[in-house]
Amino acid sequence: MLNLLRFAEGGAESYQEYARHLRETFLPRYGGEILYAGAGSTVLVAEEGQSWDAVIIVRYPDRTAFSRMVADPGYQEVTGLRTGALTEAVLQATIPWS
């Protein structure tokens, strides 16, 4: 899952709290793992407004695992941290090339 994130003013701290819950509880529970997480840097090739504050790539065993995670009542309790932290986000499922 590709995550492109644009933070609200002061939102990075709230997102870090959400990410802590994700790493410590929900990803292990549903078999996910963060493959990459990093801050956006210099945009080299993009349209105006296509820069992002952060990029995260998360591997889930399958789409069902992701769906089960976001439906988890405990996850629902912390997802507000994520929502309030962001002004814009893209979550794009991907399929590995063979």
TrEMBL record:
Gene3D superfamilies xrefs: 3.30.70.100
Pfam families: DUF1330
Domain DUF1330: 13-88
Name assigned to this protein: Uncharacterized conserved protein, DUF1330 family
InterPro entries: Dimeric_a/b-barrel, DUF1330
